[in-house]
């Protein structure tokens, strides 16, 4: 249908009979559900139709317009049954619309009236033209809904047809598949018996499928073995069992296909009904398919609800090496010998399946792609490292020193003796890391020391602060001696030791002296240094900070003329230098003076520290401000990083202050502010991505980025127009 041709058709107008009915339809006033008074007509609309050039035209008239003498339609719907299309011309807004009838803009009165008037002749025209069971408004809407459904299905088929084509290479199930699932795939078997005084002598074994003798005295839900097939069974007394089912058992079928091979995952169970224990139901539903090509590239599908419309196969992401949702199950074995000769020849999967009772083949292949040495590790009898490959793939992958090496010894960065020690100790990735460290440094470490470090989750990097002064055996002995004073927590010993030596360096102590780095009473010496650091002279801190950040004092002096401002109640004051900022942090007990990030930001002119004071008490610490070069307030905090209720009143003053300093800013200030906004946005994005949480104080448990965003007070006087927040 072409709009130009449709627009040229003569408009259908309301007949005299329709106008009379509308005039007689006097509206009544009623309250709607929302409490608003509205006018309600007996009929929501009037319809008139005609067929011309195989196109059905349906005109819609509303009573509000007809009672005022309007004979022209509000909408005219054009329908082409042949082309399976419809379109509506909106005469009220003079535009074309593709919405269905129920989604057009109706007058409010029409929502409360359900009757749509149409003559019997026109009703028959719509019913005959559309070939539906209903005519009139309902028949037209039925046709439109059917068209929309067809269009939706065509869009969906563009996505699903390639999936169906890909999955068409799936072979049929083996003839004995159902029996194999029942006897081998489902691993729970039962032995049903009738309770008898003195103990039952025989019962029905679900694996044998027949009556078998019972040895001993069976008890309901007690585990044992069938004396005939020797399978593990759970005894069930017929009178007590009732309805029950086994847990879900995952089973796998690997078959050859056009592109390579396909791994099919099924979920099976047995359902037992009371009195029908010899004929259980064995539902087995397929839940996942993964097709592998010649290069072992996977294409995965799962059985699910597609767009809330129907159950079908849906493309999804293949299993990742670190996927924790994998389900191990038994593998159908009759297809494996043929696949082992070609498709699975280079994977080691068949040997892996024969060695294990249950396997997730998709997970194995994903891990194998990430750690090609998996098969070598497994065949080298490194059982713990093999398990870690399957559960913590990234940890083992990071320990591969030479990925392209043909042999395992060279790939792991060891020698033959190291591999032998790794095997004898059944070491995992942590033990391997220690052996690699030993080989790199050339300093021998006993196996028992390495095993202890591994059991305590201590790595060589954790001991970086001390390993140049002591051997690993000495470190091990020292930690063991200190542990009784630390609730036997080795990690606490290591952390306290590292903190102690860090403070000793800051206090210019000789950390090469054994008496210092090997303190006999570590906790006591640590606490003494904490006290000394707290009592450290302010002038020494000032000297250290001034040396590390030489421009901070000058920058603080330059802030006075530009950023200081006072009114009747409040004042913003610039610090004279490092000393003022340090004292502010001490008085208010927050981190502005002790955290290096603030000194670094001042040095780079990313942000500055100012003091908010009460006008009558300019020398008394009140609130500390962190601002950007354009006056944007990043943070405003008082004692212990808090905000009291009085900050609301002070915020009004800060808004006035921002307007005042906006006029003082230079082009260089605005350039610095633009750069500062970018760095702030990057920092907030990183905090949000890392989900950094505050662990102490009254804000404990909240995301740091949420607190900073709530504190942020943009200077809208200096922002570019496109960046001004809507609320401003």
Tell me the layout of helices and strands:
Elements: H1 3-7, H2 16-24, E1 28-31, E2 37-40, E3 43-52, E4 55-61, H3 63-66, E5 75-80, E6 85-90, E7 95-97, E8 115-118, H4 120-130, H5 136-167, H6 177-185, E9 190-193, E10 202-205, E11 210-213, E12 223-225, E13 232-237, H7 238-241, E14 244-245, E15 249-256, E16 261-268, E17 271-272, E18 284-292, E19 298-306, E20 310-316, E21 330-331, H8 336-340, H9 349-355, H10 361-370, H11 374-379, H12 383-391, H13 393-397, H14 408-411, H15 416-424, H16 429-441, H17 447-455, H18 472-482, H19 490-506, H20 514-517, H21 522-534, H22 538-548, H23 552-563, E22 565-566, E23 570-573, H24 578-588, H25 596-603, E24 608-614, E25 623-627, E26 633-637, H26 647-662, H27 667-690, H28 704-711
Parallel strand pairs: 3-8, 9-13, 15-21
Antiparallel strand pairs: 1-2, 3-4, 4-5, 5-6, 6-7, 9-10, 10-11, 12-13, 14-17, 15-16, 16-18, 18-19, 19-20, 22-23, 23-24, 24-25, 25-26
């Amino acid at each position: 249908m072409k709009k130009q041709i449709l627009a040229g058709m003569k408009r259908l107008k309301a007949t005299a009979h329709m106008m009379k009915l509308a005039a007689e339809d006097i509206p009544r006033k009623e309250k709607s559900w929302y409490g608003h008074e509205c006018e309600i007509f007996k009929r929501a609309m009037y319809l008139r139709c005609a067929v011309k050039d195989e196109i059905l035209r349906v005109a819609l008239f509303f009573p509000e317009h007809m009672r005022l003498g309007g004979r022209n339609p509000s909408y005219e719907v054009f329908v082409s049954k042949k082309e399976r299309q419809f379109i509506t011309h909106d005469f009220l807004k003079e535009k074309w619309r593709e919405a269905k009838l129920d989604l057009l803009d109706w007058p409010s009165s029409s929502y409360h009236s359900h009757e749509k008037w149409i003559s019997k002749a026109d009703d028959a025209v719509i019913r005959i033209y559309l070939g539906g069971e209903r005519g009139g408004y309902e028949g037209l809407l039925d046709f439109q809904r059917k068209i929309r459904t067809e269009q939706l299905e065509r869009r969906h088929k563009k996505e699903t047809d390639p999936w169906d084509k890909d999955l068409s290479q799936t072979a049929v199930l083996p003839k004995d598949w159902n029996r194999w699932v029942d006897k081998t795939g489902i691993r729970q078997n039962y032995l049903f018996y009738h309770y008898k005084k003195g103990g039952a002598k025989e019962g029905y074994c679900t694996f044998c499928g027949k009556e078998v003798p019972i040895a001993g005295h069976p008890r309901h839900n007690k585990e044992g073995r069938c004396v005939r097939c020797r399978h593990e069974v759970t005894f069930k007394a017929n009178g007590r069992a009732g309805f029950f089912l086994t847990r879900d058992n995952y089973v796998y079928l690997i078959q050859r296909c056009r592109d390579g091979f396909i791994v099919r995952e099924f979920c099976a169970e047995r359902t037992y009904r009371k009195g029908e224990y010899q004929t259980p139901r064995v539902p087995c539903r397929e839940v996942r398919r993964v097709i592998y090509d010649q290069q072992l590239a996977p294409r995965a599908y799962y059985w699910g609800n597609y767009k809330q419309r129907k159950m079908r196969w849906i493309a999804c992401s293949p299993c990742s090496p670190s996927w924790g949702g994998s389900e191990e199950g038994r593998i159908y074995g009759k297809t494996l010998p043929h696949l082992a000769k070609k498709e699975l020849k280079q994977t080691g999967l068949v040997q892996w399946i024969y060695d294990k009772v249950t396997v997730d083949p998709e997970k194995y292949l994903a891990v194998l792609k990430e750690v090609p040495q998996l098969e070598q590790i497994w065949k080298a009898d490194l059982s713990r490292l093999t398990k870690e490959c399957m559960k913590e793939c990234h940890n083992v992958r990071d320990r591969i020193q030479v990925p392209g090496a043909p042999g395992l010894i060279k790939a792991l960065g060891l020698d033959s003796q190291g591999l032998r020690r790794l095997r004898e100790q059944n070491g995992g990735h942590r033990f391997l890391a220690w052996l690699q460290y030993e080989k790199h440094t050339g300093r021998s470490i006993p196996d028992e020391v390495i095993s202890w470090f591994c059991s305590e989750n201590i790595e060589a990097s954790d001991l970086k602060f001390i390993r140049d002064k002591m051997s690993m055996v000495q470190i091990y002995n020292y930690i063991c001696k200190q542990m009784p004073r630390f609730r036997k927590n080795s990690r606490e010993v290591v952390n306290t030791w590292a903190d102690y030596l860090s403070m000793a360096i800051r206090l210019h102590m000789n950390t090469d002296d054994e008496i210092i780095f090997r303190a006999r009473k570590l906790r006591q010496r640590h606490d003494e240094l904490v006290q000394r650091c707290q009592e450290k002279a302010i002038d020494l801190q000032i000297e250290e900070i001034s040396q590390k950040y030489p421009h901070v004092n000058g920058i603080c002096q330059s802030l006075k003329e530009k950023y200081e401002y006072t009114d009747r109640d409040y004042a913003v004051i610039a610090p004279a230098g490092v000393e003022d900022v340090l004292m502010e942090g001490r008085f208010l007990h927050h981190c502005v003076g002790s955290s290096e990030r603030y000194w670094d930001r001042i040095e780079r002119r990313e942000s500055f520290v100012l003091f908010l004071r009460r006008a009558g008490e300019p020398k008394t610490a009140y609130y500390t401000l962190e601002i950007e070069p354009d006056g944007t307030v990043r943070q405003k905090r008082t004692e212990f990083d808090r905000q009291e209720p009085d900050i609301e009143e002070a915020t009004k003053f800060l808004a006035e202050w921002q307007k005042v300093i906006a006029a003082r800013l230079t082009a260089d200030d605005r350039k610095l502010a633009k750069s500062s906004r970018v760095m702030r946005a990057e920092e907030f994005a990183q905090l949000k991505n890392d989900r950094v949480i505050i662990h102490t104080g009254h804000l404990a448990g909240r995301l740091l980025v949420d607190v900073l965003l709530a504190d942020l007070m943009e200077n809208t006087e200096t922002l570019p127009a496109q960046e001004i927040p809507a609320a401003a």
